[in-house]
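Record 1 of the preview.
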Amino acid sequence: MHPCPLVRHGLLHILNTCMPEIIFQAVESFSVMARTPGLVEADLVVSDIRDNEKEAIDGVDWLLWLQSIRSDKPMLVITNLLSDEQINKLCKQPLISMLALQTPETQLRQQIESVLSGELVISPLLYMSSTVASIDLTVEPLTDAEQRVLKLMYQGYSIVQIAEQLCRSAKTISTHKYHLMRKLRVRNEVELFARVGALH
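->
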């Protein structure tokens, strides 16, 4: 479950709006989810995954296990940043759709409705990590936090919007931006996007 309650409640609101006839049960963690009666028989499981790396890895493994015992029922994973390895693990499962948490609300609603109508949806925003991973950093690698900030900047988010997405302060995000630009040896956003865009 996502660490920012506003995000979690926003997702619940969107789901309730898309499917007012269905009652959604929100849980605070994967361990609570595991003890939820009827989980295996549920018609649809929707899960968000935290931006904490260890919890994201554990969450992906847990969701893969859950999906393996749910047979022919769909699962919807809404996340902000997973590694390519985690994304690929989830994408190999035929009934798991993956949406990007940073998708604008109207587009997210459309994608959720597509999933509910039986389509498999994989958000292209989740594949930005391939671009970041391909940057050659022989001197100093980007931290996970810096990679997340870079991905969201590349997708057009402002510092304030990134802070809201990651539940951090704008000052913290600005510090990550400063450090990643120094490490990539660029002086401004134009140079930054040119460098990242050339690798995309």
